[in-house]
Amino acid sequence: MLIGIVRRIIKRIDDIEDHLLADRLDLKRANLAELRRVLVRLQRLLAPEPAALFRLLQRPPAWIADADVQELRQSTEEFSVVLNDMVSVQERIKLLQEEIAARINEETNRSVFVLTIVTVLALPINIIAGLLGMNVGGIPLQHGGGFWTVVAVAFSVTVIAGWFVFRRQRNSL
Fold first, then answer.
1. Do 6 and 82 form a contact (C-beta atoms < 8 A)?
2. What is the number of helices (H) and of strands (E) in the chain?
3. Which residues contact 32 (CB under 8 A, 6 or more apart)?
4. What are the tens digits of pLDDT across the range 70-117?
5. Which of 16, 29, 74, 141 is the most exposed place for a label (fewest CB within 10 A)?
6. CB neighbours of residue 17 within 10 Å
């Protein structure tokens, strides 16, 4: 029964890992945390048992037959192996959780970077629009080609800022 539980958990972890490697992971880290909690509870509950059984098998009572002692010894060894498997599965879950967290962190960093680029590119235009939007007398460049001069300055500052940002992005890759 314990072996069946561990095998089902391993199967679920294999499925999650396959989806993660194929970039089709739609499961949350909570699913892995749930599996890890089950394993921790089982291990906490069952970890002392193999030691007690091995102590019993070192000096078995007289009423236990030799065949039963041998069978109990074999079952205890299998039980210990399953407990060790549970520890390795817990470690595997922890690594998968870290990998998922790293991927989420990368996606967040990419989103923040795109937002930063948009902000940097829109900043010069917003500053100039804010300055020219004030209703005060004596606004500079109000006569002649002032509008087109302001548009050219805003466009050139935006192009220079965009060039700088994209050059910096290329150098960081």
1. yes
2. 5, 0
3. 13, 16, 93, 96, 97, 100
4. 888 888 888 888 888 888 888 888 888 888 888 889 889 989 988 888
5. 74
6. 17
